[in-house]
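Students often ask why inverse folding is considered easier than folding. One informal answer: many sequences map to the same fold, so there is more than one right answer. In these notes we will look at a single instance of the problem. The structure comes first.
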């Protein structure tokens, strides 16, 4: 049945919503967990001096705030009631000094909390980053990039807020609550019990309000991210939109999203409009109740409570109620921080599926003999993608891997580079099983030029030196000259110091490839891996790259994955793969003569592009 446009849009919208919900399906809050809290506290240990100074500031501030109120009550009860003007001046001076010291302490309380939070998050980020860098590829296969970024950004942010605000603001509020309670007890036990009875009502109303608000705000954020994501997509894909005349439908979809967002905005405002007056009324209602009971007690003939003390009590009740509101708010934030911390630590605690064996040894200087001995490999258990692979590569030989898409070419080079481990069988380099060597010693002797020639932000020079940061400028120049790209690189706007832009966007495809070749050549590896290194470039650039490639490959054991058969015609051995098995092997001439799978592949390819005749 054909779907009408509005239905399709609603379907799109629902689909989009589901995707967002799925992405955000992780728990937003977690109960307070003292194991997690104490683990976060361990990150403060290196900064013990700052942490201790902060704790002193917290205690001082918890006392200072009620003390200010106490000082006012004392002044009213003392010099004011006794009409002692010099006494009032003295009290005012004392109050002024106390207020000054309160602000002084507040400055350091805030500053130290911010600094400590930053330091903790800095260390956590670095630890997580180092951990991720050492995870094997199998981990990244299972874990979405978005998840990792969200751990690094939003969970980290929740923990930062948890340390900088929640923890210390709550400690101050809690201390203030205790001091105010002690003062009220001192004034009048009966009235204090009344206040104590009111506290849970205020706490619960507050908690309910904040819980509701945080859920509504989460929905609001989600709806807003749908709007911004659609906006970004529409701007980036405007050419496709115009090309397919989708403007009206896109506008309709956007209108729906905006309407959806307004709905959540209205809900937030409605909740605020209802609860803020209710909370205020609660406090006022309690004040009236206290006024009635308090006045009744003061007016009793045998009362020990004076009018001045009742006024003081009122001040202290206020000092007692306001931290309850603060704690109610911080509690929500604390639960969010708990969820963030739990996810962060779960990631930090994820052990790599495999690491170097405890008795792994550095691989001695490699000559370049590589052997696959009955190698089986699967990315997912029970679904082998390489089945009993056997071959030998002598030092200096080029092994070309050929086959249809998904036949297992990239998997073979992933195993040579030990990005993954085989399920069974052995991969030996110079007769040494790769399982028993350290990854670092292997990677130092392997050069890799990947299909997606990845450049990092930085200059051309930084990227060439990526493989050997200590290489001298002369060495870099020699390598570039060997590849025939020295003039080209030195002719860039800032020569080798030219920034490559994000992922090399400021360089042409050919230049990017040359940077990768130079990087590989500089490392001077004995084993070289090339994954479709010469795809998607024009014929002139390709010829240049082919020549450069010959230079890079010379004298090394090379594994080349290329769909372009022209690049592998000169390989010593061609392995033809099909569904994870080697179905043919030999050099170009032998395979053509056999008139099998390779010959057919070559034939098809020759028809698509003009190539030298086979043979
Ligand atoms: N990271 C991965 N996780 C799970 N399965 C994978 C992964 N990478 C590849 N595969 C699967 O393994 C099989 C072999 O893939 P491989 O990338 O080795 O093929 P290929 O011959 O290099 O293909 P292409 O020419 O398209 O690059 C395919 O069925 C593929 O779907």
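Output (designed amino acids):
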């Amino acid at each position: 049945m054909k779907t009408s446009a509005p239905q399709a849009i609603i379907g799109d919208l629902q689909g989009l919503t589901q995707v967002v919900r799925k992405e955000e399906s992780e728990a937003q809050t977690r109960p307070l967990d003292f194991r997690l809290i104490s683990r976060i506290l361990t990150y403060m240990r290196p900064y013990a001096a700052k942490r201790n100074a902060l704790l002193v500031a917290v205690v001082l501030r918890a006392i200072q705030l009620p003390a200010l109120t106490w000082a006012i009550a004392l002044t009213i009860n003392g010099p004011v009631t006794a009409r002692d003007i010099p006494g009032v001046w003295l009290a005012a001076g004392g109050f002024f000094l106390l207020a000054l010291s309160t602000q002084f302490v507040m400055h350091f309380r805030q500053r130290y909390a911010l600094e400590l939070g930053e330091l903790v998050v800095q260390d956590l980020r670095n630890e997580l980053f180092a951990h991720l860098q050492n995870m094997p590829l199998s981990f990244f296969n299972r874990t979405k990039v978005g998840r990792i970024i969200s751990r690094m950004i939003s969970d980290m942010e929740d923990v930062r807020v948890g340390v900088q605000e929640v923890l210390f603001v709550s400690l101050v509020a809690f201390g203030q609550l205790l001091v105010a309670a002690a003062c009220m007890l001192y004034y009048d036990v009966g009235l204090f019990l009344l206040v104590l009875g009111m506290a849970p009502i205020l706490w619960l109303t507050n908690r309910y309000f904040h819980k509701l608000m945080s859920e509504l705000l989460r929905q609001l954020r989600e709806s807003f991210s749908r709007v911004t994501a659609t906006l970004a997509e529409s701007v980036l894909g405007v050419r496709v939109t115009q090309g397919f005349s989708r403007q009206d439908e896109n506008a309709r979809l956007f209108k729906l999203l905006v309407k959806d967002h307004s709905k959540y905005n209205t809900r937030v405002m409605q909740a605020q409009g209802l609860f803020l007056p209710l909370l205020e009324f609660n406090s006022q209602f309690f004040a009236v109740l206290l006024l009635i009971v308090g006045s009744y007690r003061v007016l009793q003939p045998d009362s020990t409570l004076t009018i001045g003390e009742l006024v003081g009590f009122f001040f202290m009740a206020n000092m007692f109620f306001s931290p309850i509101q603060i704690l109610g708010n911080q509690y929500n934030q604390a639960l969010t921080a708990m969820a963030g911390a739990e996810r962060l630590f779960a990631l930090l605690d994820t052990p790599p599926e495999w690491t170097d064996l405890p008795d792994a040894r550095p691989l001695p200087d490699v000559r370049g003999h590589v052997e696959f001995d009955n190698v089986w490999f699967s990315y997912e258990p029970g679904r082998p993608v390489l089945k009993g692979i056997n071959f030998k590569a002598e030092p200096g030989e080029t092994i070309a891997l050929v086959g249809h898409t998904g036949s297992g070419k990239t998997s073979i080079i992933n195993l040579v580079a030990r990005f993954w481990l085989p399920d069974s069988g052995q991969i030996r380099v110079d007769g040494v099983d790769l399982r028993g060597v350290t990854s670092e010693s292997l990677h130092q002797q392997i050069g890799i030029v990947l299909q997606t020639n990845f450049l990092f932000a930085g200059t051309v020079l930084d990227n060439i030196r990526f493989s050997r940061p200590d290489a001298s400028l002369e060495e870099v120049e020699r390598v570039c000259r060997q590849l025939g790209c020295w003039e080209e690189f030195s002719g860039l706007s800032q020569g080798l110091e030219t920034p490559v832009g994000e992922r090399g966007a400021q360089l042409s495809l050919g230049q990017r490839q040359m940077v990768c070749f130079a990087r590989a050549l500089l490392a001077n590896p004995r084993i070289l891996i090339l994954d479709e290194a010469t795809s998607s470039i024009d014929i002139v650039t390709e010829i240049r790259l082919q020549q450069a490639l010959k230079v890079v490959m010379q004298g090394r054991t090379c594994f080349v994955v290329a769909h372009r058969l022209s690049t592998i015609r000169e390989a010593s051995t061609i392995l033809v793969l099909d569904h994870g098995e080697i179905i043919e092997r030999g050099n170009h001439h032998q395979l053509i003569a056999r008139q099998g799978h390779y010959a057919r592949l070559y034939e098809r390819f020759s028809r698509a592009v003009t190539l030298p005749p086979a043979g």
